[in-house]
Amino acid sequence: MSAAPPASNPRVDRTPMKWLRHTWQSDKRRFLIVGAWNTLFGYLAFVATHLLSGEAWHPTATVVAAYCIALPQSFLTQRLLVFQRTQDDWRKQFLRFLGSNSAIFAANLILLPLFVAATRTSPLFGQALFVAGSTVASYLVHKHYSFAD
């Protein structure tokens, strides 16, 4: 005697849109997705700035210029897509966002050379550690300060 088929076995919907809707429900996942885009945009801003300035600018000047180009775009994507805080005063949010990001940026400029000198490790390794730590710090700062009520 064979077993009876299951009473109901609805087909599981695994469409890309369903996955995207599920993924997009979490602000942490939105932060990572938008952060990946912002990182790519910032890197492309660096490349464009470097290519346009040629050898006339020191690499640090190129990084600062690219940061100034990428920051407004990053603010808009974080505000509108990640934290979805459109009712609040954008100027106040932007100033907090600018201060938070600039503090993390300055910490990177200061801590990376110190870390490399103290540990005698590769700057690539040091920067990878900083990116991981600053990603968590950035999420927390923006959630609880930059875009808080």
Kindly summarize this structure in a few lines.
The protein is an all-alpha fold and 149 residues long. It has helices at 16-24, 27-53, 59-82, 90-119, 123-146.
Descriptors:
149 residues; mainly alpha
Radius of gyration: 21 Å
Number of strand elements: 0
Count, helices: 5
Q: What coarse outline follows from CA principal-axis ratios?
A: globular
Beta-strand residue fraction: under 5%
Roughly how many Å apart are the termini? 65 Å
Topology as a string of helices (H) and strands (E):
HHHHH
Sheet with the most strands? none
Average of the residue pLDDT scores: 87
Q: Ranges with pLDDT <50 over ≥5 residues?
A: none
Structural class of the helices, strands and pairings? mainly alpha
| Secondary structure: helix percent | over 70%
Q: What this model shows, in words?
A:
It contains five helices and no strands. The protein is an all-alpha fold and 149 residues long. Helix 4 packs antiparallel against helix 5 (123-146). The N and C termini lie far apart (65 Å).
List the SSEs and their pairings.
Layout: H1 16-24, H2 27-53, H3 59-82, H4 90-119, H5 123-146
Helix pairs in contact: 2-3, 3-4, 4-5
